[in-house]
């Protein structure tokens, strides 16, 4: 076994996190475009990680920022979302999920620059730098 995502098995913590994610309707789940899936798979395979972890933290010029890292473990309150045709998962902590419902992760390029981008229907405005965002007052 070389650690590639194609060989990963669904352990009990992953199955439980997937079940927590599946409680939500499709339009509230986190999705990943094919371009982003290909990019993320390379990182996950290289690190032999479980997937991509995304959360939010108070920071930046608009108030909130995404916190993105490779998922090395699954916490008791984490939610996980399957990515079609992939054997890695998007993992989100329960506290961040209300701010990420319906998020789509994409991978885009402009010139020589390429990066993950996030389409978040919960965002009321984004900073000009593209690194931070604001949420409506009720969030």
From TrEMBL:
<dbReference type="InterPro" id="IPR035903">
    <property type="entry name" value="HesB-like_dom_sf"/>
</dbReference>
<dbReference type="InterPro" id="IPR000361">
    <property type="entry name" value="ATAP_core_dom"/>
</dbReference>
<protein>
    <submittedName>
        <fullName>Iron-sulfur cluster assembly accessory protein</fullName>
    </submittedName>
</protein>
<dbReference type="InterPro" id="IPR050322">
    <property type="entry name" value="Fe-S_cluster_asmbl/transfer"/>
</dbReference>
<comment type="similarity">
    <text>Belongs to the HesB/IscA family.</text>
</comment>
<dbReference type="Pfam" id="PF01521">
    <property type="entry name" value="Fe-S_biosyn"/>
</dbReference>
<dbReference type="InterPro" id="IPR016092">
    <property type="entry name" value="ATAP"/>
</dbReference>
<feature type="domain" description="Core">
    <location>
        <begin position="30"/>
        <end position="131"/>
    </location>
</feature>
<dbReference type="GO" id="GO:0016226">
    <property type="term" value="P:iron-sulfur cluster assembly"/>
</dbReference>
<dbReference type="GO" id="GO:0005829">
    <property type="term" value="C:cytosol"/>
</dbReference>
<dbReference type="GO" id="GO:0051537">
    <property type="term" value="F:2 iron, 2 sulfur cluster binding"/>
</dbReference>
